[in-house]
């Protein structure tokens, strides 16, 4: 408080009261918002503002929907691939993997609208496009390239990747604090994908049997967009409601 008073008096003497008031009014907008979220299990997540959205910085790991109902926990690859209802799992059916990489959820869990903590949601395909365009240094928001279903962009992937946790020198720059981690995937197997690929669901359906996802690969700087079967197990990031 003493340091602030000294600055206040100095500014007042040099510029006048009106400038002091203006500085005080502008001060809150100079601070980058950054906070924490708690899910219904009590897990605490960091968050970061990127552009006009506030993102969860970690992969979701809740075992319950935000109304308190348990999400079915399913082990065994044959069991998982036959599901037509909401479910989650840990990579390799090992809960230890959840500490860094979170859980894997099928789209049926996403589509309930109750997976993220209250006040948060699974981002849509369009909201992921905004993120990609905001962070990419060549292709900006609204560029038609983000509508394509393939590996596309220039360097959005490496700018979103965490600085650690990726195999074979595939770590990223994490320039925006998003800290993308390669939690892998699941269908008929886990495909040795942990550490090499990160897959995230959007909340947007493609057709009756598939939905849009995003993928970052350890060896590439770009990001991938496409539809995948709703039975897949992917990571989830949450976005704060406006």
How are the SSEs ordered, and which strands pair?
Layout: H1 2-15, H2 17-26, E1 36-38, E2 44-50, E3 53-56, H3 77-81, E4 88-89, H4 98-101, E5 104-105, H5 107-110, E6 120-121, H6 125-135, E7 151-152, H7 156-160, E8 197-205, E9 210-217, E10 223-229, E11 239-240
Antiparallel strand pairs: 1-2, 2-3, 4-5, 6-11, 7-10, 8-9, 9-10
Annotation keywords:
globular, 11 strands, four-stranded antiparallel β-sheet, three-stranded antiparallel β-sheet, alpha+beta, 7 helices, 242 residues
Q: Tell me the domain tally.
A: 2
According to DSSP, the number of beta strands is 11
Which range best describes the helical content: under 10%, 10-25%, 25-40%, 40-55%, 55-70% or over 70%? 10-25%
pLDDT average, as an integer?
88
Element string (H = helix, E = strand): HHEEEHEHEHEHEHEEEE
Cα gyration radius (Å)? 21 Å
Largest sheet: 4 strands, antiparallel
Q: What is the terminal separation in angstroms?
A: 34 Å
Number of helix segments?
A: 7
Strand ordering within the main sheet: 7-10-9-8
What does this structure look like?
There is one protein chain. This protein has 242 residues and is of the alpha+beta class. It has two domains: 31 residues, no CATH class; 205 residues, no CATH class. The protein contains seven helices and eleven strands. The strands form four sheets. Strands 7-10-9-8 form a four-stranded antiparallel β-sheet. Strand 1 and strand 2 form a beta hairpin. Helix 1 crosses helix 2. The radius of gyration is 21 Å and the shape is globular. The protein starts with a helix and ends with a strand.
């Amino acid at each position: 408080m003493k340091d602030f008073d000294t600055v206040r008096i100095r500014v007042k003497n040099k510029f006048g009261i009106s400038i002091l008031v203006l500085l005080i009014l502008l001060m809150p907008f100079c601070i980058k918002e950054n906070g924490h979220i708690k899910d219904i299990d009590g897990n605490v997540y960091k968050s970061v503002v990127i552009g006009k959205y506030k993102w969860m910085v970690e992969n979701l790991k809740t075992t319950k929907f935000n109304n308190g109902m348990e999400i079915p926990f399913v082990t065994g690859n044959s069991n998982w691939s036959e599901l037509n209802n909401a479910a989650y799992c840990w990579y390799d059916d090992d809960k230890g993997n959840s500490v860094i990489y979170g859980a894997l959820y099928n789209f049926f869990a996403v589509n309930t609208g109750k997976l993220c903590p209250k006040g948060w949601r699974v981002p849509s395909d369009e909201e992921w496009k905004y993120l990609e365009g905001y962070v990419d240094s060549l292709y900006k928001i609204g560029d038609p390239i983000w509508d394509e279903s393939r590996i596309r962009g220039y360097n959005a992937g490496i700018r979103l990747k965490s600085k650690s946790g990726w195999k074979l020198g595939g770590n990223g720059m994490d320039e925006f604090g998003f800290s993308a981690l390669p939690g892998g995937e699941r269908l008929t197997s886990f495909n040795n994908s942990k550490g090499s690929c990160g897959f995230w669901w959007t909340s947007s359906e493609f057709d009756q049997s598939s939905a849009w996802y995003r993928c970052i690969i350890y060896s590439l700087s770009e990001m991938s967009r496409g539809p995948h079967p709703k039975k897949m197990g992917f990571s989830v990031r949450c976005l704060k409601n406006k």
